[in-house]
């Protein structure tokens, strides 16, 4: 997020926000599995709470990134392309898909809808990073000031879609 703020990149800030939501979701999942391990609450109740916390984090990312993207597009301000931003986005686009696959495998073996949602947050983060990278490269190479906030708006759409699907699953 610091690199995104420094560059004025809505897409990079979106990537950082998604990673923070992913970390929050992971903390909730640790609580969920510890509660089940120690028998404090019925497993289904704890799983449901963890699932709802994860999907709400994803929807919050969508709302925040969409708002910031629209504000940037209306104001006509784009990102400043910094090498640190390009490296951060590229590294995230490479690492996050692998982490998401690991989470999906574990989620299917447990089974845990909350962990599956956490994996979706990670995949949204990977897509966010890839779109941020594309937006930054288009801004740099073609001087399309709007590429970064437009990429962030697509990111918000991905997060909203994944969050909505998980919300329907959680509601039943």
Description of the structure:
- The chain has 172 residues and is an all-alpha fold.
- It has one domain (2-171).
- The protein is built from six helices and no strands.
- It has helices at 2-7, 10-38, 43-75, 83-109, 113-142, 147-171.
- The mean pLDDT is 85.
Q: Report low-confidence residues grouped into runs of 5 or more.
A: none
Question: In angstroms, what separates the terminal alpha carbons?
Answer: 34 Å
Percent of residues in β-strands: under 5%
Q: What is the succession of H and E elements? A: HHHHHH
Shape: elongated
Number of discrete domains: 1
Q: How many helices?
A: 6
CA radius of gyration: 17 Å
Largest sheet: none
Entry summary:
By secondary structure, this protein is mostly helical.
Keywords:
mainly alpha, 172 residues
SSE topology sketch:
Elements: H1 2-7, H2 10-38, H3 43-75, H4 83-109, H5 113-142, H6 147-171
Helix pairs in contact: 2-3, 2-5, 2-6, 3-5, 3-6, 4-5, 5-6
